[in-house]
Amino acid sequence: MNPDPMLRQMRLRLWLAAALPAVLVMLVLLVLFVQRHSFELLQAQQHQAQAVAKQLASQAEFALFAADVQTLQRLAGATKDSDDDLVAVALRAANGHFQAGAGRFGAQLPDFSGNRVHLNGDRLWVIYEVRSQLMAVDDPLAAGLLESGVAESVVLGYVALEYDLSALQRSSRQLLLWALAATGLALVLAALLSALIASSVTRPVAHISDVVRRIGGGQLQARADVERCGPMAQLASGINRMASQVAVTQEELMQQVQQATDELRLQKLEAERTARTDGLTGLLRRRAFIELAEAEIQRSLRYEDPLSFIMFDVDHFKFINDNHGHPCGDAALVHLAELLREQMRDSDLPCRWGGEEFVVLLPRTSADVARHAAERIRSHFEANPVRWKDRSLRVTASFGVAAFDARDISLSSMVARADTALYRAKRNGRNRVEVAEGGFAAGLEQPTA
Ligand SMILES: Nc1nc2c(ncn2[C@@H]2O[C@H](COP(=O)(O)OP(=O)(O)OP(=O)(O)O)[C@@H](O)[C@H]2O)c(=O)[nH]1
Hints:
Low-confidence stretches: 439-449
Number of domains: 2
Helix content: 55-70%
Distance between the termini: 92 Å
Strand order of the largest sheet: 2-1-5-4-3
Strand content: 15-25%
Number of helices: 10
Shape: rod-shaped
Bound molecules: guanosine-5'-triphosphate
Order of helices and strands: HHEEEEHEHHHEHHEEHEEEHE
Number of strands: 12
Mean pLDDT: 86
């Protein structure tokens, strides 16, 4: 997985923060070390050259005094052979009258005067005075004067040496290369170590930021692995606690929302039920009934199924109200609705049409079957009186039955025909069933009470 740009930058900065000081320290140490080493080598070479010059001067003192060129030549040759880096040796008289030497000087020598060390590129020259101590050898007075500084020794001549420093410089360069190689290796190790440190810091950050991103994206069960977070373990466990808290809160909120939704749904269902059903009897209200009945009529027309309609009205209901009170009338209506339900099929649609008037729609039912159903209801009413205050009141109803046929253009025309049949039943003595004309054979209209 590619780390995001922020983490890449953080890793790079940490890496630089850890590696840069190491690089700088290494470079400074390297420069100091090489400089110091070269300087010390040169110093040592100079000291050695001066010591050689001094020793040669002391050996050449007699020969110079005696102008013994042969001995001087021998001394110069032996000195030159004693050191590979010594390329030329010269012994010269102070007055310049004679000179002996070995090897060739690379360039014009500086003036022969005093004790001097001169550096020119890869060449080192040493000029050393040969002073005479000879006068003091047999003369204690002269020796005392020389020692006290009152008398000066005489310059007999000069020793000149030329050293080739190229080997020394080569070894310095080699040392520099080795030091550079060692520094390079150390830098690589430092870089690796820094990368390791940077990654040990950014890995927990990457892990924690991934977890936070997942939690933000809705995965509330995502948790940081505290073991993997090292120095950021405390931050990781804090985020875990926060995520748990958020998850609990979200769960509670969801439960509350679910509860509120359920309550609303129940309230809506209850409101719909209340709007559709009659509060007293629990039967359908007229408007809800009409909606369902219209749909049934369409279905019956499409499939050419028979459809019938019963309408009934309680007989002398005003009398019940007037003589036993309105609550008794209500109880009678509830009782009749209950009796009606007992006689209905599940597919039938009973309805309180209004006041003490009821209707029933009977899908897939012919007028003949509907008439028998009405008769059954009527006799059920008659056989089951209303109980009111220890009294038993016989309550009857008059029925009109109509079947939907080709002449009906709507529900209302069928209702009108059933209504007509119902009032015929009233006129004909009540507590009886009448079938409307058109939907049924006239011969079937017969009194039932
Ligand atoms: N208790 C009660 N009475 C109602 C309710 N709805 C209508 N009524 C009464 O029912 C009575 C109907 O009386 P009418 O229309 O004269 O008919 P009836 O007395 O049943 O006489 P017929 O229908 O000719 O047999 C009225 O007194 C209305 O007040 C109701 O919900 N509860």
